Amino acid sequence: MAKKKKQFAVIGLGRFGGSVCKELYQRGHEVLAIDKDEDKVSEYVSYATHAMQVDTTDENAMKQIGIGNFEHVVVAIGDNIQASILTTLVLKEMNVPTVWVKAQNNYHHKVLEKIGADLVVHPESDMGRRIAHNMASEKVIDFIDLSDEYSIVELRATDKVNQKTLVDLNVRAKYGVTILAMKRGEEMNISPMPDDLIHQGDMLVVMGHKLDINRFEDEGL
Ligand code: ADP
């Protein structure tokens, strides 16, 4: 059976909201693109299922377009923090199950959490951190923060570990981290065995405390 299409709405078609909208639409989802600026709406007609001009702080207008029936709404109103907060409030009062909001700063973040935003994102600072991580270490390919303390990091195997097995590395005992998977070229090994050989250039997917992963990256790789 075909996977059920999810219904999305994206509010605010600036650089961030615009790219979220285009990506969802290109992936085959139904997307309602909303902005209060008419030019933005015209620009997005061909990048969304529907594009509408609405001031999303206007509760009645939001009711009229049936925004409460959407499963997932992204609020990407940039500079106007007041409009972003009001829009989020309207959406949560209408019981939209999942509301993700772009925050401008930490105060904005706190308020959004208090009024029920399901996820608050900081695309600029997140991207900055990601780039800094990659610049600071050639071994780090990508990472996901699981919490303030724990991450999953993709690390590039250096010649130091070339032709070694997971037993040789003994990372769990030495560093307290776990190698979840290994990738060589396009081939993904999602349950690496203790005697699987690592080649230089392989990607290792490592989970653990950030400090332990750093230690493994510095000393073990
Ligand atoms: P970015 O930093 O991601 O480029 P912008 O601040 O440039 O974000 O864009 C935010 C978008 O949100 C703009 O296109 C703006 O017209 C839209 N917007 C702002 N306030 C409202 C509102 N009350 N209702 C709907 N759209 C809004």
TrEMBL record:
Lineage top rank: taxon: Bacteria
PROSITE patterns the UniProt entry points to: RCK_C, RCK_N
Any Gene Ontology biological process: potassium ion transport
Coiled coil regions, renumbered to chain: none
One of the record's GO molecular function terms: monoatomic cation transmembrane transporter activity
Residue span, RCK C-terminal domain: 138-221
Pfam families per UniProt: TrkA_C, TrkA_N
Transmembrane segments: none
InterPro entries: NAD(P)-bd_dom_sf (IPR036291), RCK_C (IPR006037), RCK_C_sf (IPR036721), RCK_N (IPR003148), Trk_Ktr_HKT_K-transport (IPR050721)
Residues of the RCK N-terminal domain: 5-121
Protein name: Ktr system potassium transporter A
